[in-house]
Amino acid sequence: MKVSYEQLKSEFKRVLLSRKVREDLAEDCATLFADTTQAGAYSHGINRFPRFIQQLENGDIVPEAEPTKELSLGAIEQWDAHQSIGNLTAQKMMDRAMEIADQFGIGVVALKNANHWMRGGGYGWQAAEKGYIGICWTNALAVMPPWGAKECRIGTNPLIIAVPSNPITMVDMSCSMYSYGMLEVNRLAGRQTLVDAGFDDEGNLTKDPATVEKNRRLLPMGFWKGSGLSIVLDMIATLLSNGLSTAAVTEDKDDEYCISQVFIAIEVDRLIDGKTKDEKLQRIIDYVKTAERADPNVDVRLPGHEFTTILADNKAHGIPVDDSVWEKLKSL
């Protein structure tokens, strides 16, 4: 089914207000959830919203909490989220990283006691729209086996890198081949994943999303490389924020909260003039796009460029929503 942006935002806000979230916070949070869904990141927009409400009701999310700065060291700052609303806090932290970058050329904000930020790519995009290089990542619950194991001990720990090209070029990637959100999207659509998503109960690679959702044997992105990347991102986020690691969150908490995140903004304009920047980026884009196609009917992929098309289409024709997901939202 298709719904309008206004319908979607109204439903999000209704549910938030019914849970006694302050009106201004409900408005801002509903806007971010609607923006994420309209941009095509359904797995971390409408599909994730019921999980967000569950954590709100459990007290894992403290809606009126405000993040506070704990330490400043030149271009690096440590902040404590105090379990505030994840997407609103992440947006503030990337704004703060850009403010620091205006002074030092680079700004690094490390955040502890954070909640799930929903669509991480939104914060990289936020920086790139304003002309900065945006980099951010988060640790998470242990929901993926490290390479060589079948027991979950590492997080999917998504990493985002956004470049202010035209259109914006952005990698928004889980350290697993598929996030659990994208497994759900594929399962709801009744389809297998494009490439192997994990292992079945016998240890064989599988493209069946339901199997991997159930046994939680996600395949790390790039096999041992994704596993290694997850571990070092967790280590850096833990050290920079002085917060909890994936191990600590998994062993010491009863759900995914009090996680650690990093937001980095790099100011480009004082490093290179605008015309030269645009020319260099366009040459890279053109060089990649003009490579001979493996399939004549499929464009060469540039990361993040599809979101510009998806957003325009969803604005013009409405936002596609799985019927069962819409009914679940309406019932909250």
Automatic annotation (TrEMBL):
Pfam families: Ldh_2. Keywords: Cytoplasm, NAD, Oxidoreductase. NAD(+) binds at residues 168-174, 224-225, 304-306. The active site is at residue 44. Its main location: cytoplasm. It is found in: Cytoplasm. GO terms for molecular function: 3-dehydro-L-gulonate 2-dehydrogenase activity; NAD+ binding. InterPro entries: Diketo_gul_Rdtase, Mal/L-sulf/L-lact_DH-like_ah, Mal/L-sulf/L-lact_DH-like_NADP, Mal/L-sulfo/L-lacto_DH-like_sf, Malate/L-lactate_DH-like. Homodimer. Catalyzes the reduction of 2,3-diketo-L-gulonate in the presence of NADH, to form 3-keto-L-gulonate. This is 2,3-diketo-L-gulonate reductase. It comes from Bisgaardia hudsonensis. The lineage of its organism: Bacteria, Pseudomonadati, Pseudomonadota, Gammaproteobacteria, Pasteurellales.
